Amino acid sequence: MFSLARLLIAALMLGVASAPVRAGVFNPVTFELANGMTVVVIENHRAPIVSHMVWYRVGNADSPIGKSGLAHFFEHLMFKGTPEVPAGQFSKTVARHGGRDNAFTSQDFTAYFQNVAADRLELVMKLESDRMVNLALSDEAVRPEIDVVLEERRSRTDNEPAALLHERMDAIFHLTHPYRNPVIGWEHEIRGFTRADAEAFYRRWYAPNNAILIVAGDVTVDGVRPLAEKYYGRIPARALAPRQRPREVESLAARRVVLRDKAVRQPSWSRDYRAPAFGDGSPKETLYALQVLAHVLGSGATSRLYRALVVEQALAVSAGASYSPDRLDLDAIGFHATPRPGIDVARLEAAMEAEIARLLKDGVTEDEVARSKKRLVAETVYARDSLSRGSYTLGIALTTGQTVADVEAWPERIAQVNAAQVNAAAKAILREDRSITGFLLPALADEGAKP
Amino acid sequence: MIRSLFLALVLALGLMAAPARAVTIERVTSPGGIEAWLIQDHSIPILALEAAWRGGAALDPEGKVGLAHFLSGMLDEGAGPHDSQAFQTRLEDLSARLSFEAGRDAFRARLKTLTESRGPAFELLKLALTQPRFDAEPLERTRSQILSSLAREAEDPDTVAARAWFAAAFAGHPYARPSNGRVEDVKGMSVGDLRSAMGRLMARDNLIVGVVGDITPEALKPLLDSTFGTLPAKTATRPTVSDVRLHKAGAPQVIRKTIPQSVAVFGLPGIKRDDPDWYTAFVMNYILGGGGFASRLMVEVREKRGLAYSVYSYLQPFEHAGVFFGGVSTENARVGQSLDLIREALKHLRDEGVTAEELANAKTYLTGSFPLQFDNSDRMAGLLVTMQIDRLGIDFLKRRNALIEAVTAKEIRRVATRLLDPNGLIVVVVGDPKGL
Questions:
Q1: What pTM, to 2 d.p., does this model score?
Q2: CATH T-level assignment (fold) for domain B22-228
Q3: Contact state of B152 with A265 under an 8 Å Cβ cutoff
Q4: What would the DSSP string read from start to end of B315-332?
């Protein structure tokens, strides 16, 4: 079987660090430094390597009004040098020691990582803690980076009709909340970034009491603690202004967005319904029930949507649903489908809506729920197979409103979900007036042209 | 937003160094004569297997381009007593993962399973390999999925550029063809075609197996026999794929699309994996364009001038040809300038060589980063298969660092003269480029 659906989801999830992996038991140890920096250690002694990450509780939704993309632009500038480590030398130093490094930004967090041999942990701690306080930007380093980010925007978004549609859907779905702005930023706002913008952003957000250190791999808690104290513990905490984001207003009207582009050879359809996020204070039971719902409906070749639209009705090449509520403020449950050649998108939408109506009328069965729960929980064993999986899962969780205990208890909480909860959650969430539907279509002149 | 999208990819294509901690690779031979390389790891109750058969999409008959790829999508769509839905349900109930992939030179199967369900999971793999059903519903569904993918690829400038590059560089050879298929060919593929492809592609005489995880040699042996033992002893008669040299470059080929950013790919004849100059070329390429933010291309094109988000090069060793390949994506107006800088970087490396510091840094990276490859069991199983496909020997991990340490600046200069011809670059640009 070809996993077209998964490819499509991956293509739409730009700006997200990694597919949010549902955790198993990572058995992390957590402690706090005197300056308020959180430290998480995940021991994993399968190979003599270590993953060192620092997560900041700041993302694009914290960029100032009119400066969308500043959080991401600033992430690039974190490689532009300190008095001790000049511009361009950070990654070269890591590489010289056999390591790899990179960084990523989402709406809610910014993270930096290095993967190195375990005996190089101290080196990367020294480098990462240095740029937490000593970044020294010059105009010469900042200016070309605006061009680099514009090229990044062209690669990710402007050259990709599917990404353009996704960007516009976000902007239209969110009426007042800054999640409406793309993580990469709007082009004209990127062009306006200055060194002063970056420096103000650095002072506002980059401090140990706004950061989480996560070390995973061939280390011990007793080995990490003194190093963390030595390099991060010496950085003084700073008073940080509270994080303030405009609230989203209640959705009253369904929205439909149509993007036509002559590059499009394969149309597609998607719909999001407003749904809770881990960080928004909603009862967690609802979120777990929705995770099971998304799995029953739309995960894999035997899910309801794949079976109905792709196998039985032969209307689609892919169909599915997804819900990974790793957001601080609000989220959505998403449905997507790609028509077979020659099938009208309107017909596909009608079939999808019929499945959703059937769900709301008849609900899911206990048997379906039991199978999905078993599969979801089994996946957590595989999550432990990767060195960095635990770091990503915990980093995302801790920056989007969950605790370490939530992550560790996830398999048990999923196991407690029952069909009545799933059906109640479906009725509460799948409401047309809180939805947005997107159509990616060929340009009108090209319609009828065979792919 | 990841700062560098392609870094992981480029590194994955590179070679692996010896691990800092000894990893024991065992050669396991079943009573029926099936050989597998095994790394035992009992820390987590899971197991990853990768099997490969030499051959692959290069063996697709003319007029049936994409047949091996079609087969890779059909093997888990019903086998033995299980129809497609029953087969997939069984896999999911076992929490097992099974997939197939048709590369140019090899056809691969990957299975990942929990220890507790490994018996039934291997049984499903065996059914897929020996009794696939090819029922009409999944056949037409898979055909539509491939046609949809091909349509999507035709929208994607990176894929369009790479396809055009291979079509130009290898015209007349199977490597010129797209492994995922041609629309007209895919439309005509039948169950008979799939069955004859199985005979060409998969037998015991071209089988390679790598296993990593929670299993002992004693437990693995009977599973090898039950899973692979009923494959035919030898593959059916297959076409000969000949060694090939890339065509000479013409003028840059431009595929016009009205998009804001052009995607340019470039390449030259590279070297094959068994070439005595392999390690020298490998270190050379790391310095030129394989080393992410440490590479010369990245510094010249991105860091200094902001011309691109991504610019890279790598060596791709095929069974019958070697390729040096690279790419850059940049605003239409700056394509000419970017390609000039890349040609200049090739020329500079050829004429001036590399510095002692660059060489030392490359060696510490390429040897020191090796253990990072051991990040999960799927990748390790893939490494065991690649080592066998490339005929590196079971002791390769022990020798690998020394081979890299032995590379000298003088040798790099010689190999750069052999490989890096700035005027010979085969270039394809997709977009609306200026200044070419």
A1: 0.92
A2: Cytochrome Bc1 Complex; Chain A, domain 1 (3.30.830)
A3: yes
A4: EEE-SS-EEEEEEEEEEG
